[in-house]
Automatic annotation (TrEMBL):
Keywords: Aminopeptidase, Hydrolase, Protease, Serine protease, Signal. SUPFAM superfamilies: Trypsin-like serine proteases. The keyword Transport does not apply. This is Dipeptidyl-peptidase. The keyword Signal applies.
């Protein structure tokens, strides 16, 4: 994936005029620039409609309301967790798909939270005043405290979620107020065989032929589907080449504004270790899957996630190992020269690069320990995660809101609580494999002589310890979890559950490395990052978008194929007929029987998937692709191989967003799945000839 990427627009904003780069906040959308390039400027009413029609799925994806009765469209791969949780050995919904014939048949997803952004407010001044003059632990404590206070003041009820969002590396803070919905029910999910047709070989590639879509419905506290004032109408035709299109979603994170010190640490240390570790994780899951059909079923969703993440890390490593890094060097040198040449800017940001470099040194010293203990990668087990959440909830919920870990504040805790009190299956044999392997990996990374490793593992074989913990715990029983959660500190202290005891045993060390990271890495990076942001604002203004933060963003672009460096022309769309031509009858190119049966009725000229120049990254999965009329023309589900480096920069000639075409979705619902009621709900009373 050797390629030339443009220098990040934040450093060289003049380049943005030549490419559709940027993931813009809704309160700072570049309407004028869009109008100058495409002849259409979205006004406030258009932006408000798109914002309110869009949603965030709290486990890392995006979506959109597509009917007045709370129907949400997102990707199948965003709902695989729900589909897997609703499946059994007797009814494998991943393999057979699911279509609710009526509302009574819609099935509640155990832990899906849907957020709708309703308001953005600046809180930069308040946070700056609270943290001014502070460093290290004092800065981290002050920042955590003021953020928690702001969020609690905003969160006026269980149906409201408020997040303080850090933008421009700490240079700006906005308060995002969401409507929170925690009753989401599965309405439609196609078979995995067509949702991820082409499997891992086609992932991050194009041409593509997947129907990566799913539908869920949001219910209110009264147990009835909610009514929404804003939803996206489905277009009556596919988008044409060069049409202006928008994506509205929640890109998970980009690092385009990082310094060279931060980028080189990721290139030289973090990413190589992640590639190696995720390769091992993939091997563990593949071996487990080969034990039998049931093992394959319970590991499938996790394996697909691991394979996708592994490709992402490999792509990011390739990007930083290529021409992009040299361009970043040039850009940073130019920026530093401008700061040094201006006495006022130098007084603000002159020492920022050295300050961040020092923080990176501290991060290097902490990385492995933080990755294994605090981030939990040494404990690859759903049961352990539940135990840790119960242990920490008991400790944190007894503290003042401003002193808690951020995920246990009043504003954030309902998301954890929802999972703790929801019933879902846990495959204990898989848990033994992943926990045993991850404990062994933790020992290898931290050394057998590490005090925490010695205390946690003792003299046990890691797989023997994992088996004892997994088979002995009762946390797979939701009633047990509810009792422990309700009982608070006293219940946790009295518990003899082995997984609870194990989570308590490693908690102090995990908390310690987190506190050190917040004081020695996160605090200075935010402090010095804010100084760099001030310098950038002074030099360039605030028209350039901030890095992505898994908060709602708007991107714009056009429907367009591309030319590979080899000279190969890649068209902008694929046809339904080509799905059958590509099918081999073997995984991952095996079509479900429903598609083979429906083939005579399908219009092969209908566009299946298509590509656009929209700037997206992970987290944008499930983003609606919208035309200038505000109609849905597609559903983003992937990027091409060139887009993987989009974490660090954007190349308008090569980076592409891949989406399912609206006409393919209509045709599949009508002709393959005979979901006439859904077609009517999505398109109005007219089922349209092209969807019959």
């Amino acid at each position: 994936m050797k390629k030339l990427l443009l220098v990040a627009a934040l450093v060289l904003p003049s380049m943005a005029a030549h490419a559709d780069e940027g993931m813009y906040t809704f309160n700072n959308a570049p309407a004028k620039a869009i109008g100058e390039k495409y002849g259409f400027s979205p006004d406030k009413a258009w932006l408000d409609h798109v914002q309110l029609s869009s949603v965030r799925l709290a486990r890392g994806c995006s979506g959109s309301f597509v009917s007045k009765d709370g129907l949400v469209l997102t990707n199948h791969h965003c709902m695989r967790g729900c589909v897997e949780q609703l499946s059994t050995a007797q009814e494998n919904l991943m393999a057979k798909g699911f279509t609710a014939k009526d509302p009574a048949a819609e099935r509640k997803c155990p832990d899906v939270e849907v957020n709708q952004l309703v308001e953005i407010t600046s809180v930069t001044d308040r946070i700056t005043k609270a943290t001014d003059g502070k460093t290290g632990k004092d800065f981290a404590d002050a920042l955590r405290g003021v953020q928690a206070a702001i969020q609690k003041e905003c969160s006026t009820g269980a149906d409201i979620r408020c997040d303080v969002v850090s933008l421009y590396q700490g240079g700006q803070y906005d308060l995002y107020k969401y409507r929170r919905y925690q009753d989401a029910r599965l309405v439609f999910a196609p078979e995995l065989g067509v949702a991820k047709f082409g499997g891992d070989p086609d992932n991050f590639n194009f041409p593509r032929y997947g129907l990566d879509m799913a539908l869920l419905r949001v219910y209110g506290a009264d147990g009835k589907p909610i009514k929404v004032d804003h939803h996206l109408s489905w277009a009556k035709a596919s988008a044409a080449e060069n049409d202006l299109v928008f994506t509205s979603g929640n890109p998970g994170g980009t690092d385009r504004q990082l310094t060279l010190a931060q980028l080189s640490f990721r290139r030289d240390y973090v990413l190589p270790r992640l590639v190696a570790q995720f390769s091992e994780r993939r091997g563990i899951l593949v071996a487990f899957s080969r034990r039998g059909p049931e093992q394959q079923r319970v590991a499938e969703e996790k394996l697909l996630r691991i394979e996708n993440t592994l490709k992402v890390y490999k792509g990011r490593l390739d990007a930083l190992a290529g021409a992009l890094y040299a361009q970043k060097q040039t850009a940073e040198a130019d920026f530093r020269a401008k700061v040094d040449a201006d006495p006022k800017l130098k007084s603000v940001a002159g020492d920022a690069w050295d300050g961040i470099a020092k923080a990176v040194q501290a991060e290097r010293a902490l990385h492995d320990r933080r990755y294994m203990l605090d981030l939990g990668n040494g404990f690859d087990s759903d049961l352990f995660t539940l135990a840790r959440q119960l242990v920490r909830a008991a400790d944190e919920r007894a503290k003042p809101n401003e002193q808690r870990l951020k995920e246990y504040t009043d504003a954030a805790f309902p998301q954890i609580e929802q999972r703790l009190v929801s019933s879902f299956p846990i495959a204990k044999d898989l848990e033994v494999e992943t926990l045993g392997w991850s404990l062994a990996t933790m020992r290898a990374w931290l050394s057998p002589d590490d005090a925490t490793v010695k205390e946690a593992l003792g003299k046990d074989d890691t797989f023997d310890l994992a088996k004892r913990l997994v088979t002995g715990t009762k946390l797979n029983d939701v009633q047990v979890r509810k009792t422990l959660l309700a009982g608070g500190k006293a219940a946790i202290e009295a518990s003899k559950d082995p997984m609870i005891l194990f989570a308590k045993q490693v908690d102090a060390a995990s908390r310690a490395v987190r506190a050190t990271y917040e004081a020695d890495v996160d605090a200075p990076e935010k402090k010095f990052g804010a100084a760099l942001a001030q310098a950038r604002f002074a030099l360039e203004g605030s028209a350039v978008p901030p890095d992505a933060t898994f908060s709602p963003r708007l991107s714009y672009g056009k429907v367009a194929g591309w030319t590979e460096p080899s000279g190969k022309q890649v068209p902008y769309f694929t046809l339904t007929s080509a799905v059958f031509e590509r099918a081999t009858g073997n995984v991952p190119f095996r079509l479900p029987q429903s598609w083979l049966d429906a083939k005579p009725a399908l219009d092969g000229t209908v566009h299946m998937d298509f590509v656009t120049t929209n700037d997206i990254v992970g987290g944008n999965s499930g983003s609606p692709i919208i035309n200038q009329k505000g109609e849905l023309v597609g559903l983003a589900f992937d990027g091409n191989a060139h887009s993987i480096g989009g974490s660090y920069g954007y190349d308008g000639a090569l980076n592409r967003c891949i989406g399912v075409d609206v006409m393919a979705m209509k045709q599949a619902l009508a002709k393959v799945y005979k979901a006439d009621a859904l077609v009517r709900e999505l398109t109005g009373n007219d089922t349209r000839a092209e969807a019959r």
